[in-house]
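User: Some background: our group keeps a shared notebook of sequences we're curious about, and every so often someone picks one and asks for a predicted structure to add to the entry. Today it's my turn. The entry only has the sequence so far, pasted here. Could you supply the structure so I can complete it?
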Amino acid sequence: TYNDTYAGVYIVNATASLPEFNMIHNNITNDAGGIGVKLLGTTIANACNSNKIYNNTITANNGVYLTYCASTEIYNNTINGKLLTGGIKMDNAVSSSKIYNNMIYTDGACTTSSYCIVLSVTTAGGTTTQNNKIYHNSMYSSGDCMRFNNGTDNTGNELVNNILYTASAAATNYCISMNVATTVQFSKCNYNQFYLPNGAKAGEFNS
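Assistant: Of course. Here's the predicted structure to add to the notebook entry:
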């Protein structure tokens, strides 16, 4: 898909029956509206894998956007965007999902709100995003690599064996930036590699 006004590929729960057992595989999207791939209100074994998602001209967008999803796998995707606000964004009640083996590159005219992976709660009173596994991803950003803006806590979320590279020279940019209200951060945060050659910081917590 190219230059779609909404999204390159999207699966949305528009009826009482939840979309299940869908696979979004081996697609290419270019500048696809607001989102490369959108999954909303899906449960049970949905997957997004081996896609190439490019977004080099449209501002305030996401490569893959999940909201109110469970048991979803996002893997083996290449996401490249000069103006992405989130390479992969997990927003409101994303649970028991796996994000792994993705290459995510956000660069160009980025601001500090350009992230490779985001976990967030943007709906007032929304449910936090918990019990997800983020493994074996490679991230490059000119801002922050990861942003956790996740309400009260990150219970059950695991961040393991990822490569996080921020090219920023600003001390206000981080490989991991966390904005949570409690001391609960990760169930696991192990074996990650942080590369920050120009003056950024490895992490900020309770920001």
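Suggested note for the entry: The radius of gyration is 16 Å. The chain is about 0% helix and 45% strand.
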